[in-house]
Amino acid sequence: MTAQVAEILHYDSERLALCSTPLGLYLANNELIFQTRDVPTSCWRGYVGEWEIENNKLYLLAIYDSEEQEKIEVSDFFLGSPKRVFAHWVTGRLRCRQGELIKYFHGGFGGIYQFDLFLEMKRGTLQSSFMVDNGLSTEPKEQH
Amino acid sequence: MEKDEFEDDQEFTAYGFLKKPVSIDEAERLETVTDDTGDWPAAPFGYLWDTWKRFLLVRNPDSELWAYERPREYSLNGEILMFDYSRGYCWVKNGKIEAELAVEGGAGYPFIDLLSDG
Q: What is the value of ipTM here, to two decimals?
């Protein structure tokens, strides 16, 4: 498996690479699969979700095709045709990679980057966050 | 319930993690999603309302609704196992899980893909 394209997360005025797939539970529950055309090996899930955390709540803003060329409005997928979707089903630890790639891993989100920002979510709401320095960093990274 | 009672149910996330039987009304009350934006329908289960309704339709006669919760990390035979956190509901009949619905989880274990093939 090739290393997978990350999701997009807007948080604290930054665009982050989200190495988690929060949409997966919703898609699985509804038996939805993104296979609209040839899916590249770098994106087996067939889509890239764009998310934001605002007022500590996680929202899905848009879904793109696997090459991030075509945008799919979330209103096409969710009850009530919302402009953004509060991801109330998300509980667990989201991981955002940051900095330079230290060690490539040929699969999933397994590559090791300078920093990992972990976001602890409970029912779609941010509870806490912490940063892990994976080494080889040359400058300090502010802790959230 | 004890894990051994569900030997044939291991394909279910809920296997070994059933918590207690609940009524449909109780589940819908517990799963009410609240937020101050009003961007989503004010129904139990939020955007999973349709999914919940479909889950209710697959109930077999005499099946019982159970809540389940699988923690992100747990110990089995002295070994620490790590998975995606998952919480939801199951239809259980005669001690067997017949269907399940996850309503909470989805963050994923950050490094789970290291275990993937390829």
A: 0.81
Q: What's the pLDDT at B115?
A: 39
- Residue A132: which of A115, A120, A144, A119 has the closest Cα? A115
A24-75 tens-digit pLDDT: 899 888 888 776 667 777 787 888 999 999 999 999 999 998 777 788 888 8
In chain B the beta strands, taken as DSSP E runs, fall at: 18-21, 64-70, 73-76, 79-82, 86-93, 96-106
Among residues A3, A110, A26, A4, which one has the least CA distance to residue B106?
A26
Nearest chain A Cα distance for residue B77, angstroms = 24
**β-pairing verdict for A90-103 and B96-106:** parallel
Instruction: Mutate one of A51, A63, A89 to test the B interface: name it (highest B CB count within 10 A).
Output: A89
Greater confidence, B91 or A45?
A: B91
Buried b (16+ CB within 10 A) or exposed e, A44-76: bbbbbbbbebeeebbbbbbbbbbeeeeeeebee
Q: What is the Cα–Cα distance from A87 to B111, expressed in whole angstroms?
A: 22
